[in-house]
Structures are given as C-alpha cells and as structure tokens.
Write a structure and sequence with these properties.
Distance between the termini: 38 Å
Number of strands: 11
Largest sheet: 7 strands, mixed
Number of helices: 0
Helix content: under 10%
Strand content: over 45%
C-alpha cells in the first residue's frame, strides 16, 4: 500500500493550491483520510481530516480557507487551499487509515488490521 501526494509548489499570499493524494495497492477499506503539515522547526500538526462518509474536521487555523474532499472510488483525498498565508508554508503529508486486502476467487477480504499510512510529503511555500 502506498500514498502518493502531489500538488505542492510556490504561491503568493492570497493565492490557492490544490493538493491531491492517491492510495494504491491491495486495499480492502479506507477509514479516515487527512492532511498534516510540518513547518521548519515545528512539530507535525493536523490540518484536516475526512471520514469515509464525508464528515470533515479542520484545524482552527485553516477553517474557512481550506476544503478537504475525497473520492472513495478513486481512493483519493484532496485539499483545496485558498487565501494562503506565509504561515501555511510547510511540508504537507497525507495520511490514511487503511486495511489491506487479500484477493480470493470469491472476492477481497481483510488481510490484517487497520494501519496508518503516510504519503511522502509535498512542499507548499507561500511568499509574502
């Protein structure tokens, strides 16, 4: 199982970026998906999460500016970031709680317990 993130880059204050993260591999189910970020010299912090049926949660610092969404069929979670500020500069990591699957002639079955998987990180830089 892998998570592949994309969409980071350099943007001016007030601009927008859209991050995307795709899960691949032998996946039975995906529970919560989310985005975290880590700024230089700081701890990784939660940005936003979304449950399997679409319930969302946001850090106070991004409420009203960021929108998280997911496509369960494509196993993708996106983060639309608007009104970006210099303090949003960080490496952004996607996260997903995944149960791997094992394929049998009668279909896929769970192959283990639920684990947290992380994407490789994508850098977002907001210039002032």
């Amino acid at each position: 199982v892998q998570l592949q993130a994309s969409g980071g880059g350099l943007v001016q204050t007030g601009g927008s970026l859209r991050l995307s993260c795709a899960a691949s591999g032998s996946i039975f189910s995906i529970n919560d998906m989310g985005w975290y970020r880590q700024a230089p010299g700081k701890q990784r912090e939660l940005v936003a999460t979304i449950g399997p049926v679409g319930r969302t949660s946001y850090a106070d610092s991004v409420k009203g500016r960021f929108i998280i969404s997911r496509d369960n069929a494509k196993k993708v979670v996106d983060l639309q970031m608007n009104s970006l500020k210099p303090e949003d500069t960080a490496v952004y990591y996607c996260n997903a709680a995944i149960i791997e699957g094992q394929m049998y002639p009668f279909g896929m079955r769970p192959a283990g317990y639920e684990y947290d998987y992380w994407g490789q990180g994508t850098l977002v830089t907001v210039s002032s």
